Amino acid sequence: MDKHAAIGVFDSGLGGISVLHAIRNLLPAESLIYIADSAHVPYGEKSPEFIVQRSLAISEFLLAQRVKAIVVACNTATAAAVSELRQRWPDVLIVGMEPAVKPAVQASQSGKVGVLATTGTLRSARFAALLERFASDVEVITQPCPGLVELIEAGELQTDTTRALLSSYVEPLLQAGCDTLILGCTHYPLLKPLLQRMVPEYVQLIDTGEAVARRLQSELGKHNLLAEAQQPLDHFYGSGDTCATERTLAMLWPEAQPVIALGF
Question: What is the pLDDT of residue 1?
Fold first, then answer.
């Protein structure tokens, strides 16, 4: 495997850009290939069978680009498909996501933790196992957030509509006494500026982008696959309306990037 090969990252849309930022910050020499499966966003409302099928197809495409690792930058896709991906390609480094239950439990002073996530993540066996393993001593209050991903995909990061919808999900958690909120979808960290103005200063917002980047760094290092000093090359692909994806991407990524249409 070429240590200068790209890292492949995918999500149902542009939410995984929050993870991509963490990877770029920690691993600035790595080339990145990002796939936004925006034609099928959000995965959180799709069946597990459909998510597995899309995840397999996207991973096959990334492997055809000779990537050295795949990051499933989606909590819902990780819960539904990461085991099958690893079974299909046991020799490929595949890094997934999961809601940051353990650090949130450790950070909470009130003993009440709120989880903002998609329906698919909250109903998954993987999430149930996380709660059983790490959250036995705290009260975890879950809040599905339908409609939020679609607003983020449309680039509505600061609009009154997004603010009102987000507030309707966050306010019950604050009223219940939650002092720690898990951002259990990779889209949600893109709303951190809005969220930070919405919650008291003592409320901690926790996501897993940086932890995933550190895990990726560790695994690449174990296999001597960390890129040495080079000028990285990034490529972005999308399903659905690539022009709309480009417009929102321009708000989220520092350099303007074309989005190449996927053929599947």
Answer: 82
Do 59 and 70 contact (CB within 8 A), yes or no?
yes
**Domains 7-97+209-261 and 101-206 alike in fold:** yes
Residue-range domain boundaries for the chain: 7-97+209-261, 101-206
Query: Rounded CA gap, 74 and 41, in Å?
Result: 11
- Select, from the ranges 36-40, 230-234, 254-258, the one with the highest average predicted confidence (pLDDT): 36-40
Domain 7-97+209-261 matching CATH 3.40.50.300: the answer reads: no
Could you tell me whether strands 69-72 and 7-11 are parallel, antiparallel, or unpaired per DSSP bridges? parallel
0.85 exceeded by pTM: yes
- 3-class DSSP string for 37-55: CHHHCCHHHCCHHHHHHHH
- CA dist 239 → 11, 79, 91, 142, 156 (Å): 11, 22, 27, 30, 20
| 8 A C-beta contact, residue 205 and residue 181 | yes
Residues 6 or more apart whose CB falls under 8 angstroms from that of 56 comprise: 81, 84, 85, 88
CB of 13 closer than 8 Å to CB of 77: no
Distance CA 210, CA 236 (A): 21
Give CATH for domain 101-206: 3.40.50.1860
- Percent of the chain at pLDDT > 70 equals 100
Q: Which residues are the active-site residues?
A: 74, 185
Rounded-to-integer distance, Cα 192 and Cα 26, Å: 20
Return the structure tokens found at 205: 């917002």
The Cα–Cα gap between 158 and 172 comes to 21
